[in-house]
Design brief:
17 strands; 1 helix; mainly beta; 14-stranded antiparallel beta barrel; Porin; 53% strand; two-stranded antiparallel ribbon
Amino acid sequence: MRRIVFLFFLMIKFTGFGLAQQEDQIGIYMLNRTFYNPAFAGLGQSAEFNLHYRKQWSSFTQNPDLFNVSAEMPLYMISGAASLQFNQAKNGALNHQRTSMSYNQVKEFSNFGLVSAGIRLQYNRIILDGAQLTTPDGEYENNLINHRDGVIPNNKDDVSFMGATIGIALISNFGDMGISVNNIPLQKNIVSKEGYFSYSGSPSINIFMEKQFGMIYDINISPSILVKFEKKIIQTDIAAKISYQDNMLVLASLRGYGKNSFDGLNIGLGYKLNTKLWLVYMHEIGISQLRSSHSGSHEILLKYNLNKKIGAVVKTPPVYNLRYF
């Protein structure tokens, strides 16, 4: 346990370098935990697949658009788990594609729960599509694109680089917690192929906590919090997940970018279509100064759990894992 505490402090100290980069945003983070932290992979004790889509500020032209698909599976023979993930985030003329794979080692403590430590390696590609931009002096007739600008490319320019994420997760009857250091750049100051832009990454720290409380009539409520630190910027999401008979969900969360600034109020519903498949939808209502300019954000999550242990030794599962879908 002393090694785990030391690693927590080491991870926090390790993140004081780099230039700013905004973390991808999702609202249904409590149901897709591996999106931010690889240490949560495989803790549902069966193969799981996620299809996640978010359309932010939907009435904006070239609004942020996020697509994520992931697969994770426990590796019982070596007391670990692995996951694969593809993520595409479009923001106007920028398109950030990330393909990653992770491994996490899991240790079970009979009087405590599960402790998992994981690492994710990711291949990033950022594409700048200059054809989606215009300049005051540019020529845009007869399918000709000429910005007459030395900064903006007439077509596409891109940069590729490697990155990493490390994380720790604790799962117990007393609650769940995870901390990760995301977007650790393995290369710095990378210039694009055509030389129009460069990339210099900055890691962020994500802290997640959730606690489940049993209520009456098969109702459970699970409050959670997600805090993201990136240099001097702090974003906090506070949420509550209410489940009924393990086949219906109601979600509510509040998202802000600072102690005096809130950006969105999220309301979500989830339904278990069959024994293996969940469908979850969340709508975000803007409460910042941008609320008069957009019609909110939309988010959909499809979660499929095989509900079958592959290669596992026959063993009664711990109680603290039964809440995973």
